[in-house]
Amino acid sequence: MFRKILIANRGEIALRIIRACKEMGIKTVAVYSTADKDSLHVKYADESVCIGPPPSSKSYLNVSSIISAAEVTDSEAIHPGYGFLAENPNFVEICENCGVKFIGPTAENINLLGNKKNARKLVKGLGIPVLPGSDDIGDDERELKKVAEDIGYPVVLKASFGGGGRGIKMVLSPAHLAQAYYQARQEAQAFFGDKDVYIEKYCENPKHIEFQVLADRFGNAVHLGERDCSIQRRHQKIIEEAPSIAVKSSMRKKIGEAVTKVLKEINYINAATFEFLLTGKGEFYFMEVNTRIQVEHPVTEFVTGIDIIKEQIKIANGDKLKIKQEDIKIKGHSIEVRINAEDPVNFRPSPGMITVYNKPGGINIRVDDFAYCGYKVQPFYDPLIAKLVVRDTNRIAAINKLKSALSEFWIEGIKTNIPFLKRILSDSDYALGHVDIGYIARLLEK
Ligand code: MV4
C-alpha cells in the first residue's frame, strides 16, 4: 500500500481524505494556499506544503507547485478530491509521467467521458436510454431545424464540454432555434474552449438521480445504488439523499447493471457517478458521467456501509475490488444537507470569522467539516463549510433526525443557509417527496 499520499485539495474533502489515510496507516501531505494556512487540513496532515497565494488559479490549480510538493515530500500518490484538478486529463498524465499515482480514473477514461456528446453516444450504444436527440449536427442550419422538428419542441442545446449545468440552452420554438444555436456555440467556445454542441429533447420537471459506481483494473465493477439530488438551486445541490423513493429495486438493478457494463466496456478504473433525469412516468434518461468523488458521497456510504474514499485508494494501489454486487445491501435512508457560509435570504457569500461553532452529535449523525471557533471563512473559495449527514430506518425518520440535528448546529460570526435548510425540511411537499429539479424555484415563489 502507498506509504504517503498528497491531498491536492482543501476544505472538508481534504479532511475527509486525510481521515481515510490515517485509518489505513498512510502518511498524509496537505497543500495549502496562504489564505488556508490556519485550515484544519493543514493541522491534521502529517506534513504540509504552501503552494501559492489565495486565488485557486495560483494555488490549488497550480500544477507545477503541486507536483513539486509531491516530489519534495516523497509522496507516492495524489488524491485530487472534487473540483480543482479532479477531472483534468493533462494533470493525470503529468502525475503519471512524474511517477506519482493519480487516485482516480485514467486520462483516457476522463477524455472519453468528459465529452458529453461522446459519452451520450457511447452509453446509448450499450443500451442505456438517452433522450431523443442527435449524435452529430454539423454546421448546417437546415439539418439542425429538421432534427429539432423530428425530436419535437422544446429542445435543449448542450455544449459537448459543458457540465454541471453550464452550457445548456432551452429552445421553445423553431423561430428561436438558429439564434440559440449560434449563441450556444459562441458561449461553448468562450467557456469550454470548444464550440461543439448537441441537441436533445427537453425533459419536463424531472428528478436528478445519480448512480455511484466503483471499478478496478481487473474488470470488476459494482454499483452502490443511487442518490436523489433534485433539491438544487442554480445547479448547486443543497440536499441529497439515498436511496431515492422514486426508484424501485427492480429499476435499481436494471440501471445499476447497465452502468457497470459501461465501465467494464471502456476499462474504467476507480469511482464514477452516472447522472440521469427521471421523469414523473418513471423513465430514466442518461445525462453525463462524473469521473470524480462527489460532495454527496456520504449518503451512499451511510446506506451501504462502504468507505468510498478507501476504495478509491485501494483501487489506485492496484488492489482487486473485494466487494461483490450481491453483498451490497441498501440499508435505511440517508440525507445530507450542505451548510454554506451564505446569506439565507439572498444567497450571497458570507465570509468572515466564526465566533461560535457547535456541531450536533448522536447516533448515525455525521458532520464532514473543516471549521472551528476562531476560523476565518475565506472569500476565495466555495462557500461550503460543513455537510450534515444522517441515517435512519426510513425517510421520515431521517428527516426528523436531520431537523433535530440541525437545531443543535450553532454557528455565529458568519451567516449560514441553516434557516433556509430548516424551511425545506419543514415543507410538506419535501416531506411527501414531491420534489424535482424545479422544487427550490417553486419554494421561493411561495
Ligand atoms: C437537461 C434538462 C432537461 N432536458 N436535459 C442541467 C445540468 C446538466 N448536467 C444537464 N442539465 C439538464 N439537462 C434535457 N434534455 C434539464 C437539466 C437541468 C437540470 C438537471 C439536473 C439538475 C438540475 C437541473 C436544473 C436545470 C436544468
Question: What are the low-pLDDT stretches, counting only 5+ consecutive residues below 50?
Answer: none
Report mean pLDDT, rounded to a whole number. Answer: 96
- Rg (C-alpha, Å): 22 Å
Largest sheet: 8 strands, antiparallel
Global outline = globular
Q: Between the first and last Cα atoms, what is the distance in angstroms?
A: 54 Å
Give a written overview of the molecule.
The chain has 446 residues and is of the alpha+beta class. The protein has three domains: 4-103, 3-Layer(aba) Sandwich (Rossmann fold), CATH 3.40.50; 132-201, ATP-grasp fold, A domain (Dna Ligase, domain 1, 2-Layer Sandwich); 207-445, ATP-grasp fold, B domain (D-amino Acid Aminotransferase, Chain A, domain 1, 2-Layer Sandwich), CATH 3.30.470.20. The protein is 34% helix and 27% strand. The chain is built from 15 helices and 21 strands. The chain has helices spanning 11-23, 40-44, 63-72, 89-97, 107-114, 116-125, 141-151, 177-192, 249-265, 297-304, 308-316, 395-408, 418-425, 428-432, 439-445, and strands at residues 4-7, 27-33, 47-52, 77-79, 101-102, 133-134, 155-163, 166-171, 197-201, 207-215, 221-233, 236-242, 270-278, 284-290, 333-340, 352-353, 356-358, 365-369, 376-377, 384-392, 410-412. An eight-stranded antiparallel β-sheet has the order 14-13-10-11-12-15-20-18, with helices on both faces. Strand 1 (4-7), helix 1 and strand 2 form a beta-alpha-beta unit. Helix 4 (89-97) runs antiparallel to helix 5 (107-114). The longest helix is centred in the middle third of the chain and has 17 residues, at 249-265. The structure holds ligand MV4.
